[in-house]
Amino acid sequence: MLASLCLFGLLYGGVYLVSDWINNNEDLNNTDPLTVHSSTEPQIIPSSSPTATSTPTPEPSKAPVINEAVWVGVGDVMSHSPQLPGAFNASTKRYDFTPYFQGIKNKLQEGDWIMANLETPVAGADLGYSGYPAFNAPDELAEALKDVGFNILSTANNHSLDRGEQGIIRTNALLKKLKLAFVGTASSDEEAKEQVIIEKNGIRMGFLSYTYGTNGIPIPKGKPYMVNLIDEKKIKEDISSLRQAGADLITVAMHFGIEYQTSPSEEQKSIARSLVAAGADIIAGSHPHVIQPYEVIETTDHSGQAKRSLIIYSMGNFISNQRGETKDYGVVFKVNFRKNMDSLQTELVDVEATPTWVHRYKPDKHYRYRILPVQETFTDKSDPLLTETEYSMLKKDYAMLVKRLEAMKQ
Description:
Blueprint: E1 10-12, E2 15-18, E3 43-44, E4 54-55, E5 66-77, E6 88-89, E7 94-95, H1 105-108, E8 113-118, H2 139-148, E9 152-154, H3 164-177, E10 181-183, H4 189-192, E11 195-200, E12 203-211, H5 232-244, E13 249-255, H6 266-277, E14 282-286, E15 294-300, E16 306-312, E17 317-319, E18 329-340, E19 346-361, E20 368-373, H7 374-380, H8 388-405
C-alpha cells in the first residue's frame, strides 16, 4: 500500500488535508519516485582524427516521475437488530464487530483511500441501540471500521436523521475522535464548509456526499447544512470548488436509485453522467441494497485532456442482516490511479470489482456474520463453516453477479 504524505488536521484555506492514520508507521522513504541515473562522462574522439575534440554527451531525457494510489470503496454498512446480540460480550459489556471484516481485510487494505457508506447513526447508548426503521449502532461498529482500515466514510443517506439532530452531532463527534474522515453531514455551518481532501503519495482526492432524502424526517429548521441533499447545481459547484482547492481527483458518494432494483434508473444515469462531465472521477452509488452495474465514461478534464471516470451505480450491502434476492451480496471496488508528477496529469488506470457475500450463521441462539470474497471462497472450498450447498450457491451466484456488474461495460 502506498504511504500517505500529509498531516491530519492541517487546515489550509478551509481545506483539511487528512493523513493515512492506519499506515503512519510505514517508511516514507519507500515512496521516493524512481529516477534514471545516466553517465555524463565526455565522449573521447581518437587523436588520430584531424578534428579531435572532447565533446560532452548530451543529457538523456529523464523518464517522467509517476506516482500511484488506490481507491477502495464498499457499499452499505448497516446495523440491523439481529446483528447486535451475537456481537455482545457479556463479560466486558462491549460489542465486537471486528469478526465481520476479517475475511475481507486483506482486500480492503490494498487501498490508500478506503471508503464506505455508514448507513446508521452512532448516537450513543443513551438513545438506545436499534435497527430498522430507526437505526442507532454501538460505537464499536465505527471502531471496527477504523480497525480494519477505513479512513473515509460517507454519512449522507436516508437514515442520517434516524436519531435527529443529536444523532448527527454525536456520530460526527465520535468519527472525529477516531480520526475517521467523513462527508455528507455536519454538526455546524462551519463544519459543513470544510472541504475534505486526502492526499496519498502526492495524489490529492477530494470527497463529497449527498442523499436523495431522509425518509421524510425534516432537516432541523434553519440548519440545512446538517445533511447534504442531492442538488445537481450545488454538487457541480462543490466539485469546482474542490478543484480550485487543489484536488487532483474527486469522489462523489451518491445515495440514490430504487431499492432492490438491479439496474440503475434513468434518473441515476442522467445525474451521474452529468456529474462526471462536470469533473467527478468516481461516482460511488449506494441505497438500492443490491449490486448494480458500473461503467467507465470517456470524457475530458478541466484542462481539456482526455480522461476516464468511473460510475458505480450501487455497491450493494457490505454488511447487513438483509437476505435473499441478492441483498446479502456486495462488492469491493479497487480503482488504481496514476499521476505524472511532471505534467501533473492524473489518470484512472484500471478497475477491479470483487463480489462479497455476508455469511450469516447461528452457532448458538444468536446470529453471527462474516463478509467473504465470493470467488476466493468457492474456489478454495476450505472454510469449515460452509456447506457444499453454500459453495454451489456461491459459484452459481458469482457468474450472475459478474454479468450484472459488467452489463454496462463498454
